[in-house]
Amino acid sequence: ACEGCRGDWHVEDRGTSCKRCETHPDLRFEHDFVKVKMLGEGSFGEVWHCHSRVDGQEYAVKVVQKVVTESFKVEEAWEEAQMAAGAATDHAHIVRYHTAWLQYRCAHIPAGGNFTDKTANLYIQMQLCRGGTLYEWLREREIVMKKGVRSEERWDWAHEMVNYMHQSLLAVVHMHTHGLIHRDIKPRNIFFTSGGSVRLGDFGLATFAWDNAGVNSVL
C-alpha cells in the first residue's frame, strides 16, 4: 500500500503508482536494503541498521523526512548529506559517509480528505558502528559505580575516557580544518566501532564556518 494515503498500488505503462494520489515513488531503499533493526529515532526521523542487497554489507541508514512545498529547495534538503560527505573524507575518527538520495512520497490525506503537501525522504547511507555510543558506555559504568567498584578500575576507565576524548578532538580538528562546525557534540553522537575506535557522527546541525559571523577568526 502507498505509505502516504494507504491506497492500493497499480502497475501501468509509466510504472508503479498509487490509485488515489497518482504518486510514482522511487523505491530504491525498499529494493536495495533489508531493515535489520532500528538504531534510533527522534524528531529528525529514524536510523536503521540495514543489510544491503547490492553488495551484501551492513550499513547505518538515516531517514529524514522533508516536507515538499512550493518553497521546497532540493539544495537545502541535501545539506546534512553534504556536511557528512565533507566531514568524513575517510578520516579515522569520523563516521564514514557512503551516499545519499531523495525519495518522494505520497501526499498525506488529513481527516477532511484533501491532500496536503507531499513529502520526500532523505536517505543517508553511512558506516555502521557496532560498538554503541559513548552515552551507553558512560551509563554502563554509572550503574556499576553505584554498586561499588575498585579504585583501580576507576583509573582504567579514566584512561579510556582520555583516549576517547583525544580521538574525538582529532575529528573536530579535522572538521574545523575543512571549514565545518559540528555544533552537536555529545556522548550520543560519539560512536564506537566493533574494535573500540571512536567515530564522530550525526551532522544534522553541522554548518560551514563561513556561514557564521566571526567563526573564521575563532578557528
TrEMBL record:
One cellular component (GO) term of this entry: cytoplasm
Sequence positions that bind ATP: 62
One Pfam family this sequence matches: Pkinase
SUPFAM superfamilies per UniProt: Protein kinase-like (PK-like)
All residue ranges annotated as the Protein kinase domain in the record: 33-219
Keywords, alphabetical: ATP-binding, Kinase, Nucleotide-binding, Protein synthesis inhibitor, Serine/threonine-protein kinase, Transferase
MF (Gene Ontology): ATP binding; eukaryotic translation initiation factor 2alpha kinase activity
InterPro entries xrefs: CC_SR_Kinase (IPR050339), Kinase-like_dom_sf (IPR011009), Prot_kinase_dom (IPR000719), Protein_kinase_ATP_BS (IPR017441), Ser/Thr_kinase_AS (IPR008271)
GO term, biological process aspect, one: negative regulation of translation
Cited SMART domains: S_TKc
Keyword Lipid biosynthesis recorded: no
PANTHER family: EUKARYOTIC TRANSLATION INITIATION FACTOR 2-ALPHA KINASE 2 (PTHR11042:SF187), EUKARYOTIC TRANSLATION INITIATION FACTOR 2-ALPHA KINASE EIF2-ALPHA KINASE -RELATED (PTHR11042)
Family under the similarity heading: Belongs to the protein kinase superfamily. Ser/Thr protein kinase family. GCN2 subfamily.
Name of protein: Protein kinase domain-containing protein
Organism of origin: Noctiluca scintillans (Sea sparkle)
